[in-house]
Specification:
- The protein is 50% helix and 13% strand.
- The model has no long low-confidence stretch (mean pLDDT 79).
- The relative contact order is 0.14.
- β3, α1 (44-58) and β4 form a beta-alpha-beta unit.
- The chain has one domain (2-118).
- The strands form two sheets. Strands 1-2 form a two-stranded antiparallel sheet. The protein has a two-stranded parallel ribbon with strand order 3-4.
- It is an alpha+beta fold and 119 residues long.
- It has two helices and four strands, in the order βββαβα.
- The termini are far apart.
- It has helices at 44-58, 75-118, and strands at 2-4, 18-20, 27-31, 62-66.
């Protein structure tokens, strides 16, 4: 999935940024400046549509939310969402550790078998 991050208000044009996101990492499209709705150039429908199209086309867990850093609206949602990518990466790391453990256990069993045959 390619993630594009436009600036939500027009006074300071921002070209946005693009970044590749692995499919197993959840993505949040967070629109700020909810309290300045009349200045926003990205609508709620556009943001939600972007999340829906990313989920449908790329098969990722993409979500859309709105926030206001001025009054703190949406921060709890953001805080809870941030646990999802962390947990996904933690799971991936643990699975790699389990695979390494299984390889080491097989090697130890093989070494024991060889040792037993030598005796």
């Amino acid at each position: 999935m390619r993630l594009f991050s436009p600036h939500p208000t027009p006074p300071h044009p921002h070209p946005g940024s693009t970044r590749q996101v692995p499919k197993h990492i959840p993505v949040l499209i967070l629109a700020n400046f909810l309290d300045r709705g009349h200045h926003r150039c990205v609508t709620r429908e556009q943001g939600a549509g972007l999340a829906e199209s990313a989920a449908a086309e790329d098969g990722v867990d993409a979500r859309y939310a709105e926030s206001s850093m001025r009054n703190g609206f949406g921060l709890r949602y953001l805080h809870r969402f941030l646990s999802l990518p962390y947990l996904a990466l933690q799971r991936e790391s643990l699975l790699h550790q389990v695979e390494a453990n299984e390889r080491e256990a097989r090697a130890a069993r093989l070494e024991l078998e060889i040792y037993f045959q030598v005796i």
